């Protein structure tokens, strides 16, 4: 748990500081006074602070983001007293509209650049690893939802829509159906290609929070023993490394998923296993231990499938990082549009810092950490660019109106709009937190 929390706050701190730096630096370049620069919010008191020049730097106690307080700007601080006086040359409201626009776009610009750079460095360091889809010689096994969609054990997925399915990934399949709206897939079944339509209802089924962890399908692989635990039931029964299990209690189980299905519904504490060893089939009676296990480790699917890693040079990684970032942002746009049209329910998609934190995992994996940080950076930039008052996008919307029309919205109007936007954001945050509390505690 503590590793998960540490990763979340480390990532959040990086993103908040760099985002606010994107506002801070242009403000300084245009000789605009910045009164505060804070990591996290500091209502009533701060954990740490110091003064340098005109700016107070500090760390707040409320970890919901961070902020820079720019003089003469209507923001979440709602400093009405400052706005009542005459505009000063060093204030935000005194600067030309184009300068104010650059200051407001600085944060999201940093987020987008950071996302691209992090993905680029991930490709440079680790490359892009994947399972070659054509190496699934025995096809896939499917769960109940995939079976309902028309997939069958032994199918080999060839296309999703018109796109070749060359990299095996249940997550990509689910994303293509839910986010991109793909409505047919092509599978190879009994040595013939078959096109299967996908009903629109599966967008809702697959995006439901209850189904968030399902994989729909997996690779069918044979059941081979990799090692035997000493003093286990398997060891006492004489099972050996390299044995292939092809049956359990009189039921044929050619593949591991079939063995697991039968094992999970066993009705006795003694199993009769059919084993192939040195080309001969033999039977072994195995007694389960007190935990209901036989005491073996299985050969992983990776032993039977071809895995490939595409490596990138320093010059190539930036193109790959750019493409991955565009793909991620495109998915977010599609997801938002489907939420607004009701195809995806908001209650299934929204989550608070609890859901985000759990995505980091309980072990520190640097590749996952930087990938999560890259995605959160892009997501933060995307959300902040939405035209909602109190977000950067709201300020940008009003500034673009001023640039195009030459008419500046009144301070009173901006104050009311910012307050309204702030209330909307608080409601969304509370709703998302409530959803997470119900999901994880009840």
Mean pLDDT, rounded to whole units? 89
Biggest β-sheet strands, sense, barrel: 6 strands, antiparallel
Terminal residue distance: 19 Å
Rg estimate, integer Å: 28 Å
Helix content: 40-55%
Structure description:
The chain is an alpha+beta fold and 442 residues long. The protein folds into 3 domains: 201 residues, no CATH class; 98 residues, Pdz3 Domain (Roll); 76 residues, Roll (Pdz3 Domain), CATH 2.30.42. It is built from 14 helices and 17 strands. The strands form 5 sheets. Strands 11, 12, 13, 14, 15 and 16 form a 6-stranded antiparallel β-sheet that branches. The chain has a 4-stranded antiparallel β-sheet with strand order 6-5-8-9, with no helix packed on it. A hairpin with a 2-residue loop joins strand 8 and strand 9. Helix 3 runs antiparallel to helix 12. The mean pLDDT is 89.
Helix-strand layout with pairing:
Elements: H1 2-29, E1 34-52, E2 55-70, H2 80-84, H3 97-126, E3 128-132, E4 140-142, H4 144-149, E5 156-160, E6 163-164, E7 167-168, H5 170-178, E8 184-189, E9 192-197, H6 201-207, E10 217-219, E11 223-228, H7 233-237, E12 244-248, E13 251-252, H8 256-264, E14 270-277, E15 280-287, E16 296-298, E17 307-310, H9 314-340, H10 346-349, H11 353-358, H12 366-384, H13 392-405, H14 411-441
Antiparallel strand pairs: 1-2, 3-7, 3-17, 4-10, 5-6, 5-8, 8-9, 11-12, 11-16, 12-13, 12-14, 14-15
Helix pairs in contact: 1-3, 1-12, 3-9, 3-12, 3-13, 9-12
What would a concise description of this structure say?
With 442 residues, the chain is α+β, with helices and mostly antiparallel strands. The chain has helices at residues 2-29, 80-84, 97-126, 144-149, 170-178, 201-207, 233-237, 256-264, 314-340, 346-349, 353-358, 366-384, 392-405, 411-441, and strands spanning 34-52, 55-70, 128-132, 140-142, 156-160, 163-164, 167-168, 184-189, 192-197, 217-219, 223-228, 244-248, 251-252, 270-277, 280-287, 296-298, 307-310.
